[in-house]
Amino acid sequence: MSTWSNALNFKKIPLTAQDNLPDLALVNLDDWGLVTLIGDDKKSYLQGQVTCDVVSLPADASTLGAHCDAKGKMRTIFRLFNHNNGYGFLQRKSVMASQLPELKKYAVFSKVDIEASDDVLLGLTGESAQAVVDQLFTGEGDVRVIKAGTAVKIDEDRWLLAVTAEQAETVVNAIVEAYNDVRLSDSTLWDLYDIQYAIPRIDAATELEFIPQAMNLQAVDGISFKKGCYTGQETVARAKYRGINKRAMYIVSGEAAQCPQAGDALERNIGENWRKGGTLIASYQYADNLAVALVVLPNDLDSGTRFRLAAQPEFIWTKQDLPYTLEDE
Predict the structure, then answer these.
(1) Residues 147 and 86 reside in one and the same domain
(2) Structural domain boundaries, residue 264
(3) Are residues 34 and 107 in the same domain?
(4) Cα 213–218–219 angle (5° rounding)?
(5) pLDDT confidence of residue 4
(6) Where is each tRNA-modifying protein YgfZ-like beta-barrel domain found (predicted)?
(7) Residue 116: what pLDDT?
(8) pLDDT < 50 regions, the chain
(9) Do residue 192 and residue 255 come from a single domain?
(10) What is the spatial distance between Cα 265 and Cα 263, in angstroms, rounded to a whole number?
(11) pTM strictly above 0.90
């Protein structure tokens, strides 16, 4: 059994809302899971299961996507990339037990092996993350084969490293020894980046609650409207072409006594009353008690609408700008 993390202190970095994010941080992504798909039919099988276009995915790129039920409700949101002669399928660990059996349900009819991986998942974040990857790992592109694993570019400030448990200690020590100023963080720092970039996710508390467009998956290139059929495709297509979707995911911020959790209710102000307004998807609380979150809300709210956490009604929250547009092309 690997003991790579025993001697290292991955904990939440105490940041206030005014602080700059660390120039370089190594993040232990122990609440994320990886599924691997290997075999001759891996591409065609997955193409018929998920919202993204697996067939056209380049070897040096990754894509977001969703796996839905027959009604178009999402079991998970994942990041897909080429990994170890197959695919890696990154998702929240909290949905692994329920989602993986559904993904494997029809695999008996295809030449594909689908399993939960025991790879160690690490994040490199900050303005220096790209330079570190370029120095330590050879190759080009946004997905790179590295010793005993894969490096995947997430955005301009982040890389994911998926490596075997046997090699994790070597990789971590190489980074820590080469860069004295690297900060060690638990996965809350990754949460903060996901919120700032408005990257959707599904946890157990929100599984099978939303269609892909309710979490902006079309705005982050996680849905192909040109590929063939897949599970839930009829609902996803109707949401686009008939305008049946009435929700979207937004960034909200406000004070909090403690960090809210996925699935928590956000209320909206209507006149003198408060009503259920949305559902928390991900959140982060700064050291000065300001918190930021991703939340699914009605997509026709007035810009000045006020919000509050149902469990913490003493604090008022407001909606912030998204880093991308929700307008259809």
Answers:
(1) yes
(2) 246-321
(3) yes
(4) 115
(5) 62
(6) 245-310
(7) 98
(8) 1, 329
(9) no
(10) 6
(11) yes
